[in-house]
Amino acid sequence: MAIQTMALVGTGVMGMGIAQIAAQSGVQVLLFDAREGAATTGKANLKQTLEKLQAKGKLSASDVEQTLQRLVVLDTIEQIKEADLVIEAIIENLEIKQKLFKQIESIVSKETILVSNTSSLSVTALAAACEHPNRIAGFHFFNPVPLMKIVEVIAGLATDEPVIAELLTFAKSMGHLGVRTKDTPGFIVNHAGRAYSTEGLKILSEGVTSVSEVDRILREGAGFRMGPLELFDLTALDVSHPVMESIYNQFYQDPRYRPNPLTRQMLSAGHVGRKVGQGFYKYVDAKKTNEEAAQAVPNVAIFDKVWIGSDLNHDAEILKNYLNQQGIELDDAEEPSKESLCILATYGEDTTTAALRFGLNAQHVVAIDMLTDFARHRTVMPSLITEQHYIDQAHAIFAKDQTGVSVINESVGFVAQRTLAMIINLACDIAQQQIATASDIDQAVKLGLGYPFGPLSWGDHLGTDRILLILERISAITLDPRYRPSPWLQRRAALGLSLLFSKNNAVNHNITQA
Could you tell me which residue ranges the 3-hydroxyacyl-CoA dehydrogenase C-terminal domain spans (predicted)? Predict the structure, then answer.
């Protein structure tokens, strides 16, 4: 069947976003909301949005008029009877949604497809209360719908294959990429997003560095649009913390998804984020008022020789070239002199562990993270006993070309290493569980979360061997199962294959920087 008429039940911001792209694609959209006047208000607000787009030259007057003509406000839910597709976009409550679906079933024909825009509830559970669960699916959009060109198409255990095929086609007709996913907690995008948020919280709770510095390192060093803590403030903890707890419990307390007591405490205190003026940061008129400035660069007049140790020859060459450019004298001896500053480019370790592995005096050692772009931002990490003048020298040396430098406390895997490794590893697990294809996982996460790369492409770009090394070392040091490497990652690293490789496509994709 081709979908010509769509009914939308729930006309909030998300619902009207779906209505907009459907109407703009030529579909008649029937609008119903149980709240009196809500559907009329939703259409009026959308009219203003379309007129603003017209004023900017993005839509013609004819486009606006035709789109509005396709939007029909209903007085009663019984008027959805002729719809080919019904989309539910109401409150995230299983019992309320089940009741609504049963009501819709009593109105529409047996051929009508029924879908939920749920972001966290089981589609199988939603369908279980229905007479025809085979025509029920998930159709999860992201806000703002017109700009976020991705929709997850979720098959419940009873969903018929033609229903999924029709929804994928419908998504494409509206200009969105439809990605098929199994009915698992968080589906693809909210599942994969657990790594960024929970690891940022864990780093903060371990006292590795400050709120501002966690966000700065991941923005400037790793290329994220927002750090995890400022992102929490934007989405609000009264939304994001329950999702973290829900996914954690739905996966039977798998350590990969473990929430953090800090956000529960902040939620209890009402410090939920930007909308109330207090979260990880304080806000006035939606602007941060207490973000820390970048760390001041120490004034160092005399520099000791610098000895370089590294896990990878490539990293050593980058560091030596940089030091030569800055006029810093190198200590090229096999073992450093007693006065030299020792810089270690290492992966997955804390500085103490790395210093002992290299046989060095930890008082002289500062480690540096070489996983992220060296030209964008640098993170250095002294050991517990590194002498202050060596810390100051390392900070000053790596800031000589005006590049930002963060000095953090000891941590396994720095900040960016452990965060990126967790993101990539969790995406590998999603692929291993066959929740979706590797390609769909990659595209869905990139579009849905706005990451610089899809997580599997990112792993290829950074090097699967490096990501695996980070996880193996963190696992060995912490004995925390949250860092266990995915079999998907281990096998592809061992065989030199792309993380996008699967037997279904039988192609070794060579992913380079996009």
Answer: 186-283, 413-495
Q: Where are the alpha helices (DSSP H) in 451-508?
A: 455-462, 464-478, 487-495
Cα→Cα distances 314→134, 318, 379, 421, 496, Å? 55, 6, 18, 20, 18
Are residues 424 and 394 part of one domain? no
Q: Could you read off the pLDDT of 474-504 as tens digits, one per residue? A: 999 999 999 999 999 999 999 999 999 998 7
- The SS3 of residue 100 is helix
Is a pLDDT exceeding 80 seen at residue 508?
no
- Could you give the residue numbers annotated as active site? 119, 140, 152, 190
**Given the DSSP bridges, would you call strands 71-73 and 28-32 parallel, antiparallel or unpaired?**
parallel
* Mean pLDDT in residue range 356-367: 98
Encoded tokens for 140:
């999860």
Same domain, 196 and 174: no
CB 263 within 8 Å of CB 232: yes
Structure tokens at 120: 């966290």
Domain range for 154 = 5-183
CATH at 213:
1.10.1040.50
Give every CB contact of residue 500 below 8 A, 6+ residues apart in sequence: 438, 439, 442, 456, 457, 460, 509, 511
Considering the domain architecture, whether residues 273 and 203 belong to the same structural domain is answered as yes
Arithmetic mean of pLDDT, 140-161:
96
Domain count, the chain: 4
| Domain end (from 134, 167, 183) | 183
CA-to-CA distance for 470 and 284, rounded, in angstroms? 40
10 Å Cβ neighbour count for 506?
7
Q: Does residue 472 belong to any structural domain of this protein?
A: yes
Instruction: Please check whether residues 427 and 382 belong to one and the same domain.
Output: no
Within-domain flag for 466: yes
Tell me if 512 is assigned to some domain: no
CA angle 356–358–360, rounded 5-degree value: 65
- Nearest of 424, 388, 417 to residue 511 by alpha carbon: 424
User: At 509, is the pLDDT very low, low, confident or very high (cuts 50, 70, 90)?
Assistant: very low
Instruction: Write out the two tokens for 78.
Output: 């019984």
pLDDT of residue 514: 35
Dihedral sign computed on CA atoms, order 61, 66, 70, 75: positive
Tell me: the pLDDT tens digits for 311-334? 999 999 999 999 999 999 999 999
Q: What is the dihedral of CA 225, 226, 232, 235, to 10 degrees?
A: -40
**Residue 135 carries which side chain, given as an amino acid letter?**
R
**One-letter identity of residue 395:** H
| Same domain as 475, residue 400 | no
User: What 8-state DSSP symbol labels residue 278?
Assistant: B
The pTM for the full model equals 0.94
Grouping H, G, I as helix, E, B as strand and the rest as coil, residue 454 is: coil
478 Cβ contact list (under 8 Å, min separation 6): 412
